[in-house]
Amino acid sequence: MSLPDRNHSVDAVRTVALMGICVVNIPFMAMPPKALLSPPAGATDAAIGLAVEFLFQAKFFLLFSFIFGWGIEIQARAAQRAGASFARRYGRRLATLGVLGALHALFVFAGDILLLYAILGLIAWPLRKSSPRRLLQVAAAMVPLAAVSILALGLLLNEIPATPLEPGLGGSYVDTVQARLRDWPAIFVFLVLFQGHLALAAILVGIAAARTDFFEPGSSGRRWLSRAEPWLLGVGIVCNLFYVLAASAGRDPMPGPMAIGTLMIALGGPALSAVYLSIILRLSARWKLPPVLVLAGRNSLSAYVLQGVLAGLLFGSYGLGLFGAFSFAALLPVSVLIALAAMLIVGQMAKYLGMGPLEFVLRRATYG
Predict the structure, then answer these.
(1) Which of 146, 133, 270 is nearest to 207 (CA)?
(2) What pLDDT does 2 receive?
(3) Where are the alpha helices (DSSP H) in 108-212?
(4) Structural domain of residue 220, as residue ranges?
(5) How confident is the model at residue 3 (pLDDT cuts 50, 70, 90)?
(6) Residue 84 — φ and ψ, nearest 5°?
(7) What is the pLDDT of residue 242?
(8) Tally of domains in the chain
(9) Distances (CA, A) of 97 to 246, 351, 362
(10) How far is residue 209 from each of residues 131, 213, 215, 279, measured CA to CA in Å?
(11) 264-313 residue pLDDT tens
C-alpha cells in the first residue's frame, strides 16, 4: 500500500480549505453581531454576502475535515512502521488539540473548530479499522442526521430573542476575552449542531480515502469523483440556492420553503465540497503551488490560528481598531489577504524552522 505522506494534492486541498475558512470566519471577527444578523443595506454587499453563503459556507470546513480524517490513517501507518502504539500517540494528539482549541477559542476566536475536531476524532476512533465501504456507509448516515440537526438549529434560533453579543473586538482585549468566555458555550453548541455531523462524515470519508489510496492518480475513488462531478454540481447548485433563500430570510418566521432551504445545506454543502475537491485535484496536477504555500498547507494548524491573530490585530481595539469599519463587500478581499498573509508567514517559518510553532507543540505532545 502506498504512503502518500507528502502528496502535493493534499497540500493543495489544505491550502484552499484554509483560504475558504478564513473568508467565512472573518466577518464574525470584523463586524458587530447586529450587522451580521441584519440584511446588508447595499446591493453589492447583499450580493457578496449571498455569494459567500452560496460558495463558502459549510463547504471548506468539510475539505479540512476530509484531510483531518486522511491524516488519521497516515498517522496510524507511521506508528505501525515505527512499532509504536498508535492509541497512545493518537490520544496525546487529540488531547493536545483539544487544549489548543480551548486556548484558541478564549484568546483568539470563539468560533474555534479545533476542540470540535478533537472530540470528533475521539468519536471516529472506534470506526478507524472498519472497511472503506463501512466507513462510507456511516458517513452517508450522518447526512440525514445533519439535516435534522441544522433544521432544529434554525427553528431554535428563530425562537431565541435577538440579543447581540457585545463588545466582541470592539472592546479592549480583556473585554474581548471576557466576551469570548461568556459566549463560547453557546457558540460551541451552534458549531456542534451546524457542523458536527457533516464534519464527522467528512472525517470518515477521509479515512476511507487514505485506505483506498484516493490521492494516487488513477485511483478508483478519483475516477468515481470525476464521473460524479456533473451530478454533484447540479445537486450542489440547487440545494445551495434553497439555502441562500433561507439565509436571506434572516430572523423572520421560517415558512416551509425556508425550512427546506435550511435543511438542504446538509446535502448541498457536501456536494459542492466534493466538486471543489475534484477541481483542486485537477488543477494541482497541472500547476504546483509555490513552495511557501505548500509549507503553509503542511502546517495548517499554525496558519489557521494565525488567521485569527492577524484579524484581531487588524480589527480589535488593541490593534488597528477597524472593528465594524468594513462592509461585506470590502471584507472579502481583506479576508483573502489575511489568509495569504498567515500562510506566507507560516510558510516562511516552516522553511527556516522545519515546521510551524503549533505543529512543533503538537508533534512533541504526540511523540513524547
Answers:
(1) 133
(2) 38
(3) 114-124, 132-159, 173-191, 197-211
(4) 8-229+273-367
(5) very low
(6) -105, 165
(7) 85
(8) 1
(9) 34, 23, 7
(10) 11, 6, 8, 17
(11) 889 999 999 999 999 999 999 888 889 999 999 999 999 999 999 999 99
Q: Is 142 exposed, middle or buried (0-12, 13-18, 19+ CB in 10 A)?
A: buried
Per-residue H/E/C for 208-262: HHHHCCCCCCCCHHHHHHHHHHHHHHHHHHHHHHHHHHHHHCCCCCCCHHHHHHH
Look at the pTM and tell me if it is higher than 0.85.
yes
The label of the residue with cell 488593541 reads 318
Q: Is the pLDDT of residue 209 over 50?
A: yes
Burial 224-255 (b: 16+ CB within 10 A, else e): ebeeebeebbebbeebbebbbbbbbbeeeebe
Cα-to-chain-centroid distance, residue 55: 13
Rg for the chain (alpha carbons), in Å? 20
> Mind giving me the DSSP string for 81-119?
HHT--HHHHHHHHHHHHHHHHHHHHHHT-TT--HHHHHH
Q: Are 307 and 25 in contact (CB under 8 A)?
A: yes
Please report whether residue 243 resides in a domain.
no
Neighbours of 158 (CB within 10 A): 17
On whether residue 264 sits in a domain, the answer given is no
**368: pLDDT confidence band, cut at 50, 70 and 90?**
confident
Is residue 20 included in any domain, yes or no? yes
Q: What is the mean pLDDT of the chain?
A: 87
Amino acid at 233: L
What pLDDT, on the 0 to 100 scale, is given for residue 231?
96
Q: Is the preceding omega at residue 253 within 30 degrees of 0, hence cis?
A: no
- Would you call 127 exposed, middle or buried from its count of C-beta atoms within 10 A (0-12, 13-18, 19+)? middle
The full length of the chain comes to 368
Is residue 286 in some structural domain? yes
